[in-house]
Write a sequence for this structure.
């Protein structure tokens, strides 16, 4: 009788004999081969890990214990052992079983994967979350040798070894990237290193040698060097040992008894352990064993079905790749570098004094000689306040604890703070793992450096719809650091991502409210805020803002200005200037670039002559594009929108922005008050529009909501220009 169809879950494996397990491995391979011959898929990698998968599920107790499959195309055997045998014939078909782990399919699938190199970061996040809530679950990750050399994997290994996270790493080596020594000495040393006697005697010996007067330390150094050389002679993997990860191997990957024995022992070791397993890619199907590259998948050579002998055409999985246009670069920045600090890139900036980064002029609310803290200060203060009540909050940064303000968080909550070094990809993927483990991670990274982690935003956070708060610091213009540091590209990239909420406040008090909004909902959330000082708005109790809720700050019948972020204040002053010229101007604080407040915006746009959008971001695909798309959609079905013109004001997309003071750059880009007002007047002239006569729909009063929470007032009725302008 076949065994595989009778299994209801991995727990059933523990009652099988050695003979039955051997037969089961054959059944799994036959099922994978016959299915992939018809549906296409990743054949070789899944055939190579059959015994490895059985052993892990016999040793661990899924779904309580977690098994993370890096990349995920090696998880077909895992799917068959976790209740999906009956539907396995629908592999990769519409409405059927997915070709990668999918949480919607099974509680045994920990993470929706698909890209190589993510598994170690996810597993470390799960293990860190376990330790924070004092859980007992065991965490294992299976990573292939090809994925192990990805930059993200190396970032994760470095951090895992440094933090000594208790974690089982299974290196599936099918000789695609690593060719280690295999032999009796290697296996002997693995067994020796697992023994209690070895570990205790090694520590005792080190203490004894170190206690020798005068000669102790030099003798200990020489002793350790000799010991390491001897072990390394018989065993590969010294790199992992040097990183602080116990290395065991090489283990024959198709020997169930050896695999189980090693996994059980490794799970008893404190700290991270890497078990190096040698497998044969394509094992059980001769064509795949001979041509490991061709039969990797998902496009396969013609296959002969293992049972009916029918030839099947290769299954093509087309992937399009387009070359991106190259922007016209500006001159490189020649701003002086700050002194290097431990764990920090020399080119990464130090927060500037508040008075050097305020836009236009010091707001009237600030007392004479006082410095208004910047947005980073208000963000971290609110985060700390919330973390005192919510122990799930964990703060992560990538080598910038001071710049992001999280050094203050780390002082109060050292166990809930993680600095991964300059490893933005790992920071974001680690946050995803923490969220999977029930924590509320906050990943604070400068906008310009977040570009490095775009794949992790897409693949790890948004695809899995995880409540990770991305604190996008230095959004917009940052000044003297120049072309490499302007935070101008993040908003358009994030606006396209499913499940992600994208928000920015009009002032520092609204920032505090949006922090509460972000941590009070269950989806990915990107909160953009600039390097600038705050406006000095009087403090008020922060209340969460409903996701996607904009606010009307001013009513008007002819022109509508819609702003995203602190640029709203410049929009208010432009509205004042245009109102003085006879125009009736409305003003909306969007707060959210995604999702847009469709109803409020369409009500505000209806019947207007001109809509002006404001953002301190590149205009291509950004906030203004979203408003334009909304208006164009409405235009098709409602005549009230057919005469509305839209002018998008932001950073031009044709070139990078050079270095200079923020006020100077805003003036050059026409993003200061005078520049925005000039662009609006040019649009009105192009449309040949004139303001209505005085008294006929002129300047309207502000709304009640605006009166309750006013922006700082500017002196005088006209636009206010900075000295730099």
């Amino acid at each position: 009788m076949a065994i595989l169809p009778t299994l209801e879950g991995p727990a059933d494996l523990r009652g099988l004999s050695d003979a039955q397990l051997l037969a089961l491995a054959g059944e799994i391979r036959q099922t994978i081969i016959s299915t992939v011959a018809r549906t296409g898929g990743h054949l070789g990698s899944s055939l190579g890990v059959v015994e490895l998968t059985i052993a892990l599920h016999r040793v661990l107790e899924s779904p309580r214990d977690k098994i993370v499959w890096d990349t995920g195309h090696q998880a077909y055997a895992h799917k068959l052992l976790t209740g999906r045998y009956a539907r396995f014939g629908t592999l990769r078909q519409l409405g059927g079983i997915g070709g990668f782990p999918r949480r919607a399919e099974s509680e045994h699938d920990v993470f929706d994967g698909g890209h190589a190199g993510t598994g170690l970061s996810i597993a470390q996040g799960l293990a860190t979350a376990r330790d924070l809530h004092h859980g007992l679950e065991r965490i294992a990750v299976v990573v292939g040798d090809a994925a192990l050399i990805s930059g993200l994997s190396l970032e994760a290994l470095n951090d895992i070894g440094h933090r000594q996270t208790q974690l089982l790493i299974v290196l599936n080596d099918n000789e695609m990237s690593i060719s280690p020594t295999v032999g009796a000495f290697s296996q002997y040393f693995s067994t020796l290193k697992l023994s209690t006697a070895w570990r205790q005697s090694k520590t005792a010996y080190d203490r004894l040698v170190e206690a020798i007067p005068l000669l102790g330390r030099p003798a200990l150094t020489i002793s350790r060097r000799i010991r390491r050389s001897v072990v390394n002679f018989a065993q590969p993997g010294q790199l992992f040992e040097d990183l602080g990860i116990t290395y065991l191997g090489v283990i024959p990957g198709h020997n169930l008894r050896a695999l189980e024995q090693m996994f059980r022992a490794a799970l008893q070791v404190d700290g991270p352990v890497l078990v190096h397993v040698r497998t044969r890619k394509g094992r059980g199907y001769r064509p795949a064993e001979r041509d490991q590259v061709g039969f990797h998948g998902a496009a396969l050579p013609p296959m002969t079905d293992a049972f009916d002998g029918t030839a099947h055409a290769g299954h093509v999985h087309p992937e399009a790749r387009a070359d991106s246009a190259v922007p016209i670069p500006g001159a490189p920045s020649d701003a002086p570098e700050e002194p290097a600090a431990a764990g920090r890139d020399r080119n990464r900036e130090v927060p500037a004094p508040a008075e050097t980064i305020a836009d236009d002029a010091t707001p009237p609310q600030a007392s004479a000689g006082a410095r208004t803290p910047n947005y980073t200060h208000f963000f971290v203060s609110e985060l700390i306040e919330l973390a005192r009540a919510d122990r799930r909050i964990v703060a992560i940064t990538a080598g910038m604890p001071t710049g992001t303000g999280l050094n203050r968080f780390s002082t109060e909550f050292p166990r809930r703070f993680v600095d991964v070094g300059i490893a933005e990809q790992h920071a974001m993927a680690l946050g995803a793992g923490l969220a999977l483990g029930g924590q509320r991670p906050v990943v604070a990274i400068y906008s310009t450096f977040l570009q490095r982690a775009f794949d992790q935003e897409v693949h790890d956070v948004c695809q899995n719809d995880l409540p990770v708060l991305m604190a996008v610091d230095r959004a917009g213009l940052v000044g003297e650091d120049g072309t490499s540091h302007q935070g101008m590209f993040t908003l358009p990239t994030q606006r396209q991502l499913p499940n992600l909420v994208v928000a920015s406040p009009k002032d520092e008090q609204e920032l505090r409210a949006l922090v509460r909004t972000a941590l009070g909902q269950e989806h990915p959330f990107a909160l953009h805020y600039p390097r600038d000082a705050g406006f000095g708005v009087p403090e008020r109790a922060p209340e969460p803002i409903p996701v996607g809720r904009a606010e009307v700050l001013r009513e008007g019948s002819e022109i509508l200005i819609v702003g995203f972020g602190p640029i709203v204040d410049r929009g208010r002053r432009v509205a004042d200037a245009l109102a003085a010229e006879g125009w009736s101007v409305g003003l909306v604080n969007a707060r959210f670039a995604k999702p847009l407040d469709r109803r409020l915006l369409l009500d505000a746009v209806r019947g207007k002559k001109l809509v002006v959008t404001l953002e301190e971001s590149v205009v291509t695909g950004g906030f203004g594009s979203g408003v334009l798309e909304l208006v164009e959609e409405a235009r098709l079905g409602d005549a009230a929108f057919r005469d509305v013109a839209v002018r998008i004001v932001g950073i031009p997309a044709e070139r990078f922005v050079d270095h200079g003071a923020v006020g100077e750059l805003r003036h050059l880009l026409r993003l200061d008050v005078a520049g925005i007002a000039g662009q609006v007047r040019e649009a009105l002239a192009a449309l040949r529009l004139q303001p209505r006569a005085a008294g006929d729909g002129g300047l309207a009063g502000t709304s009640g909501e605006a009166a309750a929470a006013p922006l700082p007032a500017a002196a005088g009725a006209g636009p206010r220009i900075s000295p730099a302008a």
Notes: The domain at 552-708 is CATH 3.40.50.920 (Rossmann fold). The longest strand covers residues 610-618.
